[in-house]
Specification:
The structure holds two protein chains of two kinds. In chain A, strands 2-1-5-3-4 form a five-stranded mixed beta sheet. In chain A, 14% of the residues lie in helices and 27% in strands. By secondary structure, chain A is α+β, with helices and mostly antiparallel strands. Chain B has a single domain, classed as Rossmann fold. In chain B, helix 3 crosses helix 8. The chains are: A alpha+beta, B alpha/beta.
Chain lengths: 77, 229
């Protein structure tokens, strides 16, 4: 199973940790779609230790046991 | 005498490394007040404070130098008064305006990014970049925060805030406990940076989730490994 961890309001209607079934050729974009998650609301993605902004992670391949984190932007002072 | 407890950790000559730096703090809200407090208690003697705002009731839950006695007063003026009570020998320049409209600044050695909006954060990153100085970044919202030392050329803020207008703070607010934690982590990373400590978050960010105790370091080009689990 793929484990997806979500933070702040990305948890709304999804929960803080979600498990998804792996499908052949799955990417970060597919994971976001399965969670009905708009990547425009995400600031940083971490997948199995690799981290970057969503636009550079969308095509990152996901493994059957991947651990993925989606972080929203934080900008308060 | 004031700094004896700091010298035990940082060595007898540490003060020289800190005293000689001119520190610009932009944004004197939740983060900025605690950053200014910590820097002066560390020995920083030359500070410029920039914030256009005055203290209001809604600041009382989290802003260190806010009180019912100073409501309506300029944040930079109130904070300057308090900093001089900690160390009367320091020099504090205040600018009660937005940083974009400050005409000129003396030579700055480091910028602390304590503002509450993305537009100004990006402006500060460009300013630090153009002036070849480090930017100590911190941001908060709800249970969450992030911080790190951003060096010229890295454009980390431009990267993470790409196409973003605001963050989670608009929904989750800024509770009492988060500003002092992230502000003092910013100052800690600055001290580590000055001392050349290898583990400093240089061109990396620590993402902090105090609710679930998840602490992740991102943009770490040396390890490419997250502490997230």
């Amino acid at each position: 199973m793929i484990t997806v961890k979500l933070y702040a309001y990305l948890r709304d209607n999804r929960g803080k940790s979600v498990e998804l079934s792996y499908e052949e050729g799955m990417t970060i974009k597919d994971v976001a779609k399965a969670l009905n998650l708009n990547l425009a609301d995400v600031s940083i993605v971490i997948c199995d230790g690799k981290d970057d902004i969503p636009s550079r992670m969308v095509d990152h391949p996901v493994k059957p046991d991947s651990l993925i984190h989606f972080f929203p932007p934080v900008a308060g002072g | 005498m004031i700094f004896n407890e700091n010298k035990k950790l940082l060595g007898t000559d540490y003060n020289q490394k800190i005293q000689t730096k001119h520190v610009l703090i932009v944004g004197l809200g939740g983060l900025g007040g605690f950053v200014a407090n910590a820097l002066v208690r560390l020995g920083v003697e030359n500070l410029t404070l920039v914030d256009f705002d005055c203290f209001t009731m809604s600041n009382l839950n989290r802003q260190l130098f806010s009180s019912t006695e100073v409501l309506g007063q300029s944040k930079v003026d109130v904070i300057k008064t308090n900093l001089l009570l900690i160390n009367p020998d320091i020099k504090v320049d205040t600018q009660q305006r937005k940083i974009q409209s400050v005409n000129s600044l003396d030579r700055i050695d480091v910028v602390f990014d304590c503002v509450d909006n993305i537009e100004t954060r990006l402006w500060l990153e460009r300013y630090a970049n153009d002036n070849h100085i480090p930017l100590v970044h911190g941001a908060i919202g709800g249970w969450y925060g992030q911080f790190g030392v951003v060096l010229p050329g890295s454009k980390i803020l431009e990267t993470i805030y790409q196409n973003k207008k605001s963050g989670i703070e608009k929904v989750l607010g800024s509770p009492t406990f988060i500003p002092p934690i992230i502000a003092n982590m910013m100052v800690t990373e600055y001290i580590k940076y000055i001392f050349g400590i290898p583990e400093t978050l240089i061109n990396k960010l620590m993402l902090v989730d105090l609710k679930d105790h998840n602490y992740s370091i991102v943009f770490d080009k040396t390890k490419k490994k997250s502490t997230a689990s």
